[in-house]
Amino acid sequence: RATMKSLRFISAEVFVSNAEFARKRLGGVAHNLFPLLFKASYLLEQGGVIHDLVENWPLIDFNMRKLLGTTVDYEEDLSHRTCLVCLESCLTGLRDYVLNRSSLYVKRLKVVDLTGIKDVEVQFCDCKKAMGRWARTQMLSKICLDLLVYLQRAQHKADTSEINIDVLIDLFVTERNYELVVQALLKRCHCPLKICCVAFRSDNLALHKFFYIIKLADPSSLRKLEIVHNVRLEMEHLEMLFSTLRFPLLMSLTLPARTFNVRRFTATDEQMLCSVAEKMGETMQLTELSVPYSILTGRIRKLLSPLKTPLKVLDVSNCSLNLADMDYLASSSHANHLEVLDLSGHDLCDVYPSKFLKLLRHSSSVLRSLTLEDCNIQDTHLNMLIVGLSPCQKLQEFKFLGNPLSSRALKHLFAFLCELPMLKNVEFPVPRDCYPVGITYPIDDASLCIYDHQKYERVAEELKLILLRANRDDVKASTPLFGSYDAAVQETNNELGAYLIKSFKETLEKFTTSLKMS
């Protein structure tokens, strides 16, 4: 659907479409037109104009969410366009704002907010190249360090001493950009551009490096903390982290797999779990918690009950929850506020069906996203699943990959899903009858792609036809066999792959050495 543009926005597009003309005439542009021209330039990917607009920004703040979001003149939200050309131009323009002594306007800029950018799978810009969160972290850090070097060499300190701009950003740090980001944070107080970390993501990083950089990032200002994949954080490290640092504004916490493992708990570990939970409740404002692949059997109450604020997002996928855990979740105050819920890896319909239905019923008024992957949902469970989903009228996303459902059951389920008015995205499994007879679930990675592809395509077309006949062509239905798109993982997959190969090599060498010794 074409988005309506005001005459002001159309005029702005015409003005910036001739980059050379526009750049020469910025000096005569009223201050209040800069945001309008910026969005028009971003839409048309006019990198040179974007650079000059930022370099001469006359306003006190520069907020990407507000600038690219829905506006009166142009309703389309462009914040999901992480266009390389546009974002590079923004950051170099910001650098030159500091260096430009002959700026067209008085330098009033105090706050630059880059946190409103959304990383997505498909880029709609012409260049088709994205600048992801990791690359934005890298470039901003480099710009800050380059500025310091340039100012020292050119002795511009007197010209820039009055410039202090807080740059709000979501940092993404791995082994590859660690040193650069550390240096930028260490020298932050000397740079006119002050990196202010609002969200922090760490992957593929040694534990001692994580502890060092998280202190530099100023935990007191963090609202979101993601520690994922190859950061070997265990419960004792988490307890140490929360004991030494305070996160008073933290609302979202993601922890790596096996942070908690009750199968090897001692009495000391039980006390430590209580300590971690208490600190999460007393010193944070958590509304989002993700602890996938931790072993939390019988401990969900201990972990969640100290929280002072109800959770809106909860990921307890593959956490080996038992009946008592599900009973607590269904009855707790959190249930009525859950907007995003991931219960993957639990046999919900066979082991605790009543608790599962109760949880869905309590969260139905607000639930937007539900993930039930590898939950052993079979054809015999279909009616129960439909009963559970029926009250969830605000559901926008439903993911249930890895469940042994037949083609017939999927068609029945899709006919029901058409009735959920706000549904936009469905991730469904390859039908069981497309796999060889005797396949066991959960299906291992080696067997995941060994199915009748032609039959799957026919079934997928029939499912989409069910949506079309119900006038639900607004629903996207897909089968991403190896999981949903993750922008952060996609951006750093080369580094992650190299790390995995290195780890495998080291394990193999240790195994070979042990064989020789024996």
From TrEMBL:
Highest taxon of the lineage: Eukaryota
GO cellular component, one term: cytoplasm
Keywords on record: Leucine-rich repeat, Repeat
Family: Belongs to the PRAME family. LRRC14 subfamily.
Name this polypeptide is given: Leucine-rich repeat-containing protein 14B
Organism: Psilopogon haemacephalus (coppersmith barbet)
Lineage: Eukaryota, Metazoa, Chordata, Craniata, Vertebrata
